[in-house]
What we know:
Blueprint: H1 2-28, E1 31-38, E2 41-46, E3 49-54, E4 64-68, E5 72-77, E6 80-85, E7 91-93, E8 102-106, E9 113-118, E10 121-127, E11 134-137, H2 138-144, H3 148-151, E12 153-159, E13 162-176, E14 179-189, E15 197-199, H4 201-204, E16 207-212, E17 215-220
Parallel strand pairs: 10-15, 11-14
Antiparallel strand pairs: 1-2, 1-7, 2-3, 4-5, 5-6, 8-17, 9-10, 9-13, 12-13, 13-14, 16-17
Amino acid sequence: MKQKLVIWWVMLCALLAHLTAYATTAAIAPSIQVVGLFKNTAIIRHNNHETIMRVGVQTSNGLRLVEADSDHAIFEFQGRRLSHTLSDSPVLSLAGSSSPDQVRITASNGSYTMSGAINGQSEDFILDTGATYVTMSAAQADQLGIDYLHQGRRTQMHTANGTADAYLVTVNSVKVGAIEVNQVQAAVLPAFRSDKILLGVSFLNNVAMSQEGQVMLLQKK
């Protein structure tokens, strides 16, 4: 009889431990609803409770708002950066792998856009597997302090609009979310017109890419 009680008690403890672990995981990996986006502010709803988040503020479950405007927001959760736009479904899932070297990017109008940095300076990127290099305009290079006229190698590149003059340079670092790659080749095209820098193959060769529905996963190799 005592042996059966001991076995029953061990099984009960194991069950309670499992339920506790499940509850803890659910608490730190919730799905939230983004119900409002403003300059440096996002309004989220979780368990029928709305919370106003400011940039830099972190909630009790570890969600932090990195940046926001009326069109999009970037959240950080367990080392991952999650991009959300008003064109996305309002639900933002925080579940999934929490690898510090993984970035999850949600598609917006068929494109994968994200915020990051070049040489430590903030920039907006658009993922482009058809671009050989990280590609920017002359104005963007000037803003980043890249002296492409003297330090770059002049060449010509084939673009959608034909052949264009370009300067090949090496930037010290390109960072997207928690993924940072050093000594990345980049192309400066004076005729390039875009408010976002193309995140091309010279960066993407250093990451593994996979897709889950409308989410692109980048994992540093």
